Amino acid sequence: MISFDKILEEKIGSGIYQLRTVSIIGLIEFCDGVEYVFMSILMAILKNEWQLSQTQVATLGSSFLGGVVLGNCICAYITDRIGRKTSFSIFAGLSVILVYYTSFAESYNEIIILRLLFGIVFGTTSPLGYVFITEVAVAKYRGRFAFSLTLMYVAGKAYLVFLCFFFLDDYTSGNWRGLIRFNGIPVLLCFILSIIYLKETIRYYLNKGQYTIAFQEIEEVQKQNNNYQEPLNEREKDGLIAWQVRQNNLMIKENENEKSGVLSKQHLRITLQLWTLLILANFQNLSIYLLMPFLFAQENSGFEYMLYLFLIEFVFTFVIYLFIDDPKYGGRVNIIIYASILLVITNLLLYIYQASFLFVGMLLIKIATRGMFSTLFIICCESYPLHLRSRGSGLAMAVGKVVSIPSPYVLFPLFAIDPYLPFLILSVLGTLMIALSITYPSDRTQKHLEVYSDEQKEE
């Protein structure tokens, strides 16, 4: 049976089109990595420079997380209406404005609002990037294409720390305004490239019934990829239309029977497990980014330690990249299981050995959370059909962030009691992540995306 996944594999293939798309989407992920690390360092700097209270510092972190939740919700609903490319370009442009506006902020209230807005941009572009890539990549390499965004994200974090050597004195002082202005350059470049070169996904046109445009795009992409396959013939075009109409009819039937979408009977188990995993993963991730600058400052560690962390994290992320599409030794679910086990062990050891295990512990946690997050993002995109993909992915990420919004108000008081007490709690929570990972019901490693129940039997 003709399907778009088969057309993508046999007629379109992989080449310049996918490389260009990954490069542009990857650039915004690079900028997101820069922004995420900048957020954690900025909290430590402003606490010292503006003499902020513990509650004000926690609010600063929570405002960003609140914005991320709103951004996830925007991604969940808006991108299916106005398209992936349009949404991406709009929020890349907003990011440029916010970067430079932040560098001129003079008050705590201004920073709170700007952190909220930046969170909205971050929360929209991050899941959107994974949706974009999963829709343009062939099944065989879909995991690697999507995971390459993670490599760019980690590279952005290392880049920010490298710049800290030139702009900041330490974790609590320096020219943070000049630092963020300099970081506006890659954001501006990404916005310009998205306007000129980024193309809407063919799947989106098919889903909207814009078949003529979809067929034109297929031929154009074939030329870009230097694919010498024959253009689609009338039989293939009719078959692709029939395939999409069938999907649309099944979607309508499903929506008539189940009004809850991602919470319908068919998707309920996957949705609840994804939500719980993302809640726990976000809490773990925030413990690193909120506490790391304070822990390093407490040990009088320089920026070189954080830079080493990110560089080694990049190397191990590349190793995961090599195995993400291997259904035997890697695969999506296996990586989640490995990461969960590593988190349980490392958090416990960090609580026991504390400062003597700080660098190694942070490194292992960062490797595990990076593998966990990036793989969960891919699983989110692969677990839902096209009409629920943006909504399912965006809502899952939003729910994960919603529950973590108050986490700064939990982590900082725990930190005041014992700087390493949060890691004991995280070790206990990690056992739940292991259970959820082992029982996850779907792994679409190297499988087609748009597959309904009767077609799954054929697989």
Q: What is the topological layout?
A:
Layout: H1 4-12, H2 16-49, H3 54-77, H4 79-82, H5 84-102, H6 108-136, H7 142-167, E1 168-170, E2 173-174, H8 176-182, H9 184-196, H10 202-207, H11 211-224, H12 234-257, H13 268-298, H14 303-323, H15 332-353, H16 358-383, H17 386-404, H18 407-417, H19 421-438, H20 453-458
Antiparallel strand pairs: 1-2
Task: Write a concise synopsis of the structure shown.
This protein has 459 residues and is an all-alpha fold.
Cα-atom radius of gyration: 22 Å
Low-confidence stretches: 452-459
- Note the beta-strand portion: under 5%
Determine the structural class based on helices, strands and strand pairing: mainly alpha
Helical content (DSSP H or I, runs of 4+): over 70%
Shape: globular
User: What distance separates the N and C termini?
Assistant: 12 Å
Q: What is the mean pLDDT?
A: 82
Number of strands: 2
* Largest sheet composition: 2 strands, antiparallel
What's the total helix number? 20
Major β-sheet strand ordering: 1-2
Which H/E pattern describes the elements?
HHHHHHHEEHHHHHHHHHHHHH
Description:
There is one protein chain. With 459 residues, the chain is mainly α. It is 79% helix and 1% strand. It contains 20 helices and two strands. It has helices at residues 4-12, 16-49, 54-77, 79-82, 84-102, 108-136, 142-167, 176-182, 184-196, 202-207, 211-224, 234-257, 268-298, 303-323, 332-353, 358-383, 386-404, 407-417, 421-438, 453-458, and strands at 168-170, 173-174. Strand 1 and strand 2 (173-174) form a beta hairpin. Helix 2 packs across helix 13 (268-298), helix 5 (84-102) packs antiparallel against helix 9 and helix 15 packs antiparallel against helix 16 (358-383). It is globular, with a radius of gyration of 22 Å.
